Amino acid sequence: MNNFNLHTPTRILFGKGSLAELRDQIPAGARVLITYGGGSVKKTGVLDQVYEALKGLDVLEFGGIEPNPSYETLMKAVEIARKEKITFLLAVGGGSVLDGTKFIAAAANYPQDIDPWNILLTRGDDVKSAIPMGSVLTLPATGSESNKGAVVSRRSTGDKQAFMSDFVQPVFAVLDPIYTYTLPPKQVANGVVDAFVHTIEQYLTYPVNAKVQDRFAEGILLTLIEDGPKALKDPENYDVRANVMWAATMALNGLIGAGVPQDWATHMLGHELTAMHGLDHAQTLAVVLPSLMNEKRAEKHAKLLQYAERVWNITSGSEEERIDAAIEATRNFFEKMGTATRLSAYGLDGSSIPALLVKLEEKGMTKLGERQDITLDVSRRIYEAAR
């Protein structure tokens, strides 16, 4: 196991009625800006419940944060935060709202003579402070409610970039599985696929004898395989929703990635598909991952065999046959969740691959993966195999 420094300070308030504890988590006298997305939290009554819980505080709101939150939209919230002297941010929604709110938190305190997009260009290294924030999660997927990372898109340039900073780690997260009952099937599927691939990025690399992290990761994968389809078939099964929600949080709160090599090439290649073609984040992951697993089967050989046996119970056949079966099982799981695994399913014929590679090169992503051996040529082969 590799050395690691793990600090996961987000307080998790989990379960039915956990919103009742919200008020106690926010400093007395705080000036709060609630952030949310397209308005579903209004339709479901969640936003009203949040306002009721915050009664007595000075509260403003900012809605309209998109899936794959845009810099252009978020900067409008930054202006409000600065003008209204906001002292606490509360994200009500899913990962996109959380990611966007993290950017707002950092950008509001950023030097006003520097374009805040620089936060993304420096991967968050120059963030020195941020407005504290918490969240009420309604869509389990990204794990953003308990980590320090965020991804933001810039529509004007077709870019999608990530940043990380300890300053934007949420202070708390309210996780009530009941809030997920009304999610559309597509969002449920996207959330399960997203959490699955988050886990794979930290697990399917090469062995470093990190038994605890491996077993935790395998447990998350098995839970998603078992309960992901059930969440689609039985939307108001509390136990199923609770396990999916907790699995998504645990997939990216730092625990399973501590002391192990990590890949993240699937995400980097997927981000470019989202930026250029507007595909959902999880859709791009489902497209890229099977092709990447096959392309890097030699380098990931030992962990692919472990994955085949422990996650899919594949124990017969040659080593190559077992790896083939594990990759196919992964593809079939995504398809079972209703998430296509080929570019052609989204009307893409691969003609944009050269442009995708140009974007990767512009961003310096010419050596990806846990071994930094996914060159532009390898990325091209992965994209082509995903057609």
Structure in a nutshell:
The chain is an alpha/beta fold and 387 residues long. It has helices at 22-25, 40-43, 46-53, 71-83, 95-108, 118-121, 185-203, 211-233, 238-250, 265-277, 281-295, 301-312, 319-336, 353-362, 376-385; strands spanning 11-14, 31-35, 58-62, 88-93, 133-137, 149-154, 159-164, 172-175.
Explain how this protein is built.
- The strands form two sheets. The chain has a six-stranded parallel β-sheet with strand order 1-8-5-4-2-3, sandwiched between helices. Strands 6-7 form a two-stranded antiparallel ribbon.
- The model has no long low-confidence stretch (mean pLDDT 96).
- The longest helix is centred in the middle third of the chain and has 23 residues, at 211-233.
- β6 (149-154) and β7 form a beta hairpin.
- The protein has 15 helices and eight strands.
- It has helices spanning 22-25, 40-43, 46-53, 71-83, 95-108, 118-121, 185-203, 211-233, 238-250, 265-277, 281-295, 301-312, 319-336, 353-362, 376-385; strands at 11-14, 31-35, 58-62, 88-93, 133-137, 149-154, 159-164, 172-175.
- α7 (185-203) runs parallel beside α11, α10 crosses α11 and α11 runs antiparallel to α13 (319-336).
- With 387 residues, it is α/β, with parallel strands linked by helices.
- It is globular, with a radius of gyration of 20 Å.
- Helix content is 47%, strand content 11%.
